[in-house]
Amino acid sequence: MAHILIVDDEYQIAQQLTLLIRSFGHVPTFTLYPEALFDFLKGESVDLILLDVNMPDIDGVTLLKQIKAHPEYQSIPIIMLTGDTSREVLSECFMVGAADYINKPPDKIILQARIQSVLAAQESFEQMRISKKELQDSLKIQQMLNNNLLEATEKLEKSKQELQNSLEIQQMLNNNLMEATEELEVTQEQLIQAQKMKALGTLAGGLAHDFNNLLFIMQGNLDLMREDYGGDPQIMRYLDAIIEAKDRAKNVVNHLLTFAHIEEQPPVLTQIHPAIERALNIASNTLDDRITIRQNLDRTCPPILASATQIYQTVLNLCVNACDAMIGRGGVLEVCLEKMVFIKNPPYFPQLNRGEYLHVLVRDTGIGMTPKVQSRIFDPFFTTKGLGGINTGASKEGTGLGLSVVYNIVQNHNGLIRVESELGKGSSFHLYFPILEEQNNFQIKEWGLEQNFSTQEPAARKLRILVVDDEARLAELYASEFELEEHEVVSCYDGHQALEAFQKDPDRFDLVVTDQEMPKMLGTRLSRELLKIRPDISIILVTGYSPIVNEQNFQDFGLKGFFLKPVNFEELFQKIRDIFQN
After folding, report:
1. Which of 484, 477, 371, 488 has its CA nearest to residue 420?
2. Closest residue by Cα to residue 397 from 413, 408, 386, 383
3. For 494, how many CA atoms within 13 A lie in the half-sphere containing its CB?
4. CB 396 within 8 A of CB 351
């Protein structure tokens, strides 16, 4: 099953190709924006690209040249999509490096045959390359063995002692070969796990996007109902129960987003012991009285490149799982932080390279795990608890995402995780985070989870706001909330409709609030078109999920604000006040 990327600015053609490729048993992805191609390739592994020849912003041949000039992507096979089959066009495509071409609109049988042909050719080429490399390695090894044999023969002729030395060297080589074989097996298992995590992460990102839209609608309408029925205790009890369920669902979505690793965070040099202490404080609030916490945190440990929030989430997840393993029987929860230096790969964990690490240990004296359970604990949605809501430490229900999130966070920090467990004797989780050799270029960030919002009074001027969201309920919710603030609102349900409304009277609007993932036009593209008309227009982008724009790069798109759904309207109102007061 191959991952195939379609680059075509015609939505209908891209959608048709997506459906056809999916029917062939492959995984299709398409983008309507050629300029986003390289950003997509940075984060995704692609086996084949279908590239349109004629596109408005950049022609396919030029883009083909750019791909083939890039060392990292030049080996990806490319099939050109064209309605122009003239010899000149096709010759240029093949000269640049195209693998094949397909006429538009595509014929299903021809499309399938040519895709399979190119993939088969690519696979054959890859196998040939691997075989050549293996042959070269074999020749080198053979030459090395011949040299060793010659040296051993010479030493044998000289003396008995030299023979003994030769045998010792041979034994050392055998041991190294055995260690290398074991390390290769572990690496292969890690590769399989990483590939599985990546595929499920893509699914989790899509699910989180849809759920965030629904939760946003729920949250906004619940806020409005609280304002209308706040004086009725019976209704408020019902609303509180719904809000509690909504918050638990939001926690599940946050787990999905973390598991999917949607947003790459910039490196920040962080002291992690405050995050661990905070996690222990939270976990202690849900402890069984018979569980004792022992902590041994070396506060002199150097900082590492990390997200303090994600370290906190990792330790809290491990502590909650440890407490669950000791419920009803009591025991000891031990958490340690120390600096470790490995001058060689440790035999108990050969994939850990030499160097300096921060070692975080979370150990319990609970029920432990069987080898079968231990082999699956990092699998998404695998749980030994009953299926249900988010695990709070007191509930026996779980989503099966906690340890998957832990695994992803450790991997994303270039760290490694090792588990030791025996049934009836508890479990130990060892986390190793690399310490930078050079830290001069990074500024240490202090730990902090809470965010204090300004209490400034709202801006006196009322605004004219253009709201764009393909989810009609969300657009209505925006209108209700903004109108409560006495702003004037115009709602549009896709990017084209919003662009037309803006073009008719560009000076009518003070602010645009737009969704990102919309079928006819992405929010970033709409923003680009609006800024061409009015460079001074303020735009806030709201999305449940986007692989393109995030909290770190939104200003690169000319945006004044960025929010992930579900949005807290108080935060949104405060951002609007900040924009127009500045």
Report:
1. 371
2. 386
3. 6
4. no
- pLDDT one-digit tens code per residue, 46-65: 889 998 888 877 888 888 89
Task: Please compute Rg for the chain using Cα positions.
Answer: 29
Neighbours of 541 (CB within 10 A): 25
Report the C-alpha gap between 441 and 39 in whole angstroms: 25
The order of strands in the sheet holding 561-564 is 488-492, 464-468, 511-515, 538-543, 561-564
Phi then psi for residue 153, to 5 deg, are: -65, -45
Residue 519 has pLDDT above 70, yes or no: yes
C-alpha distances out from residue 77 to 7, 94, 312, Å: 13, 12, 43
Q: Give the tokens for residue 547.
A: 């692989």
Q: Please check whether residues 321 and 431 belong to one and the same domain.
A: yes
Residue type, 381: F
**What is the average pLDDT score of the chain?**
80
pLDDT reported for residue 452: 34
Given the structure tokens 């999916």, which residue do they identify?
22
Task: With respect to residue 194, please indicate whether it lies within any of the assigned structural domains.
Answer: no
Same domain, 302 and 216: no
Look at residues 414, 445, 476 and tell me which one is the last residue of a structural domain. Answer: 445
Report the pLDDT value the prediction gives residue 382, as an integer from 0 to 100. Answer: 61
Can you give the CATH number for the domain in which 555 is found?
Answer: 3.40.50.2300
0.85 exceeded by pTM: no
- Which residues, 6+ apart, have CB-to-CB distance to 301 below 8 Å? 271, 272, 273, 337, 338, 339, 358
For residues 548 and 32, give the distance between their C-alpha atoms in angstroms, rounded to a whole number: 13
Q: Can you tell me the distance from the alpha carbon of 120 to that of 333, in angstroms, rounded to the nearest whole number? A: 54
Give the separation between CA 363 and CA 392, rounded to whole angstroms: 19
Confidence of residue 303 (pLDDT cuts 50, 70, 90): very high
pLDDT band at 547 (very low <50, low <70, confident <90, very high): confident
- Single out the residue of 495, 341, 334 nearest to residue 420, CA to CA: 334
pLDDT in tens, 386-437: 444 433 333 344 444 568 778 888 988 889 999 999 888 899 999 999 998 7
Instruction: Provide, rounded to the nearest whole percent, the portion of the chain with pLDDT above 70.
Output: 80
Number of structural domains found in the chain:
4
In a domain, 185, yes or no: no
Q: What is the spatial distance between Cα 195 and Cα 542, in angstroms, rounded to a whole number?
A: 30
Helix pair angle (472-484, 160-229), 10° resolution:
60
484: pLDDT strictly greater than 90: no
DSSP codes, 313-372: HHHHHHHHHHHHHHTTT-EEEEEEEEEEEESS--TTSTTS-SEEEEEEEEEE-S----HH
Q: What whole-number distance in Å separates Cα of residue 143 and Cα of residue 71?
A: 32
Asked if residue 215 and residue 112 are part of one domain, the reply reads no
Residue 419, domain extent: 269-445
The pLDDT tens digits of the residues spanning 363-392 come to 999 888 888 888 778 776 666 664 444 333
Mean pLDDT of 345-359: 85
